[in-house]
Design goal:
With about 190 residues, the chain is mostly helical. The chain is about 70% helix and about 0% strand. The protein has one domain (about 10-175): Ferritin, core subunit, four-helix bundle (Ferritin, Up-down Bundle), CATH 1.20.1260.10. α2 (about 20-30) crosses α8 and α3 runs parallel beside α5. The radius of gyration is 16 Å and the shape is globular.
Length: about 190
């Protein structure tokens, strides 16, 4: 799908990105993205950035709900709180970028909306919560890697760094689940 899509709006709307992937990729470089975007692309960038903000709101909510669920051991809660902090930083950078482009940042939904969207009722234990988070983080790493060819030269490094961050998150979560170290290389981007 990425090969068939030539612009960032198409990537977002075409479903090529995961929530975490899009949000994290745009989070670190949001101010640079806003500054470098041609004026003709401002409305498109605002739309994409607002979608990323919405996804960051969802990530923040997911880690908040998980931390208060009573399903996680204290050390795992600490990891989730740290990752939530990363998402909050991404959200804040995205908000700055939308405002710099003259847009209005999208608001967060209610916690009840996120509980339903994340199917929290299906999470019965720590393993369920960690598997959900791990799937999101792996998807995010792959999304960043898939975006690199679509980005202008100034953003290749941002996407690569974000892919590294997400792969790091996935490694931490995989370790918490007791997953073995993969024996095959090139685990992401395929």
């Amino acid at each position: 799908m990425i090969a068939e899509t030539s612009n960032r709006r198409g990537l977002l709307l075409g479903g090529a990105l995961t929530a975490a992937g899009l949000a994290a990729m745009l989070g670190t470089g949001a101010n640079a993205l806003a500054a470098a975007a041609p004026k003709a692309d401002a409305a498109q960038d605002i739309q994409i950035l607002n979608a990323a903000i919405a996804l960051e709101h969802e990530g923040i909510a997911a880690y908040t709900i998980a931390a208060g669920s009573g399903l996680l051991q204290p050390a795992v809660v600490s990891i989730g709180v740290t990752f939530r902090g990363h998402h909050m930083q991404h959200r804040d950078e995205l908000i700055k970028a939308v405002e710099a482009l003259g847009g209005t940042p999208v608001a967060s939904k209610t916690e009840a909306d996120y509980i339903k969207a994340l199917n929290v009722a299906a999470l019965k234990n720590q393993t369920d919560v960690l598997r959900l988070a791990l799937g999101l983080e792996r998807g995010a790493a792959n999304a960043y890697l898939g975006l690199i060819p679509s980005l202008g030269d100034a953003y290749h490094q941002v996407a690569a760094r974000m892919a590294g961050d997400e792969a790091f998150h996935a490694a931490i979560l995989g370790n918490a689940l007791g997953e073995p170290i993969p024996t095959q290389a090139l685990m992401f981007g395929a």
